[in-house]
Amino acid sequence: MFDTLSDRLSGIFGKLRGKGRLTDADIDATAREIRLALLEADVALPVVKSFIARIKERALGSEVSQALNPAQQVIKIVHEELVAVLGGEQRRLRFAKQPPTVIMLAGLQGSGKTTLAGKLSSWLKSQGHQPLLVAADLQRPNAVGQLQVLGGRAGVEVYAPEPGNGVGDPVAVAKASIEHARRSARDIVIVDTAGRLGIDAEMMAQAAAIRDAVDPDEIIFVIDAMVGQDAVRTAEAFRDGVGITGVVLSKLDGDARGGAALSVRQVTGEPILFASTGEKLSDFDVFHPDRMASRILGMGDVLTLIEQAEQAFDADQKEKMTAKLMGGEQFTLEDFLDQLIAVRRMGPIANVLAMMPGMGQMKDQLAEVDDKHFDKVTAIIRSMTPGERTNPKIINGSRRARIANGSGVTVMDVNQLLNRFTEAQKMMKQMGGMMGLPGGRRKATKSPKNKRKGTKGGNRGGARPRAGGMPAGFPGGMPQLPPGLDPNALGGGGGGLPPGFKLPKIDFNKLNKREKD
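^ that's the sequence the OP posted. Answer follows.
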């Protein structure tokens, strides 16, 4: 959604980086370009004015003039002010002292309330709660049925005593759901309310009546991030007519300009709690202002990447891989297959890569990444016997032909996978030596002079990590990652990815969607 704005800001900052000293005229010109970029992104004018005023006030002061790197200092100021516009710190849900906690969803028809109700219930269930979904939208055709389907997918009970489609009293249903939640030991009640195509008195009166009947702990306004400035005006109307305590941004995976998302926090004064990015129940994230600001400025989102990796890799798998590394055991194709499946659980590989710092420079290549390549690799490995997965050296010509026939690929594809996997095995062994693990031995250099001899000095006999490349096992080549990305910061050590998790190395040419299978 923020691609256009991100591209504009990246271009603006690119001009700054080439200057060792910034004059007042440079700062004025930069502020003017940022202002135009925000207005083109459909950010509300009052928000743009205050945002630019704060940037100019800080940038024209000693904070930038005395900095060793003025351009980086300006980028830092823009990032901090963008975080402030998006809400500053993350705000968590407020839970009632005595359950059940009541969460009421409000918004216009088509904003994604019912889908959001299902996602929120699934997320709360994963947090250890026992939510109850309440079908109080009795006007929209099949709204009750849609909520029941979503509840079934999430494994959450749906309270729907009325059939809907214009039949039933939503206020009575909402009020009765509280007693039902207490009887069935549900600690959270999520009330899905009706919307309209536009704001009208009847909708506001019904929403206010439901609010009075259930006394909610949170009234969450669901805003369609693709609507633009009208979404902000709608949020203000709900704030004044019903009273909202938080906002959820839906349809953030759309191609709209995204100005509403940047405006709603400052205009309504209420925090953004969650972000919804697709139709699946898993396409749902807690909203972090600092992470969203980093994404907009093309800085990536490593923390979210780490959290997704921790969810995708179960504890047993992480312990197994850690034990293997510590015990000096060989990294096998079976281990590689487990990692590949776990990475696929994190979502489309292009989305995963997009969260890495610097990937904003490679949007065209990311758009061409096709997950079918990983399905092909999975099929090849699954066509092997357990013995072949453990010891790929036994795979001779006839075995390769059998594997290719069994997986529907060519022998060349099998050869490429085995060659890349051999490189990955060497890399894993070398990394074990670098970390001081028993399984990997690091060759001692005879003298510091050897290091200055380039490729002839150290690292002989092991796969060398290329500049910017990721030390991992995905077939298809070792990429050149964008400047400024430190793989070591992502792959291990404090704040690194879970044990056993290796970031994928991608050869975009081999993952091209136009590649003929």
